[in-house]
Design goal:
mainly beta, Porin, 8-stranded antiparallel barrel, 61% strand, disordered N terminus
């Protein structure tokens, strides 16, 4: 019953929009490289960070989602990214979830070119959640959001007017803007203009 109650407003909005489009009261937006474009993106990569002892680099495979706007050669986007690590044996295990929210400002040297360099800087917050399991009991400790910054140097590849692939070298500071425990690596973003 709750599902049906939630579905009714969605169906009503769809009917109203389809009537408005049929009556040509709404027109499809045009995408122009000179105007503002809204985009959504997904990304993944390989980041390296020091292990607990600080002796060796270990790999992390974060996933991210982003939304943003483009205006001329400038891009502003908000990105959520996370990865999970785990370690342990049959009796004790520890899992760590690292989440980050970053606001990025990027400059693309030639937005309409098939290939163009991109320079990016970001500031945001990150936190680490730790899940400890001992035998059958599990304890979750949620960390606090702490400040951090990121830098990236990439190459934008424009495949179509609305689809962009951007591989980049990325540097992420640790929590509280620490440089000692920073992460660095390669990240690839796929972005699609939606307006």
């Amino acid at each position: 019953m709750k599902f049906m109650m939630r579905l009714i407003p969605v169906v009503m909005i769809q009917l109203l929009l389809s009537d408005a489009v049929a009556a040509e009261s709404l027109t499809a937006p045009t995408i122009s490289s000179e105007g503002v474009q809204v985009f959504a993106g997904l990304g993944s990569g390989v980041l390296f960070e020091k292990d607990n002892g600080g002796a060796t680099d270990v790999t992390r495979l974060p996933l991210s989602g982003a939304v943003g706007v483009t205006w001329e050669n400038w891009r502003v986007r908000a990105e959520y990214s996370s990865f999970r690590t785990s370690d342990g044996n049959g009796t004790v295990s520890v899992a760590r979830d690292v989440e980050s929210l970053t606001s990025w400002l990027s400059y693309v040297s030639d937005y309409d070119a098939p290939w163009a360099p991109v320079f990016s800087a970001g500031i945001g917050a990150l936190r680490t959640n730790v899940e400890t399991t001992l035998n059958q009991s599990m304890e979750l400790s949620r960390g606090s959001w702490m400040g951090g910054f990121s830098l990236a140097l990439g190459l934008q590849s424009r495949w179509t007017k609305s689809f962009v692939v951007r591989p980049e070298l990325r540097y992420n500071s640790a929590d509280n803007f620490k440089i000692k425990d920073a992460r660095w690596g390669v990240f690839v973003n796929l972005e699609l203009s939606v307006y």
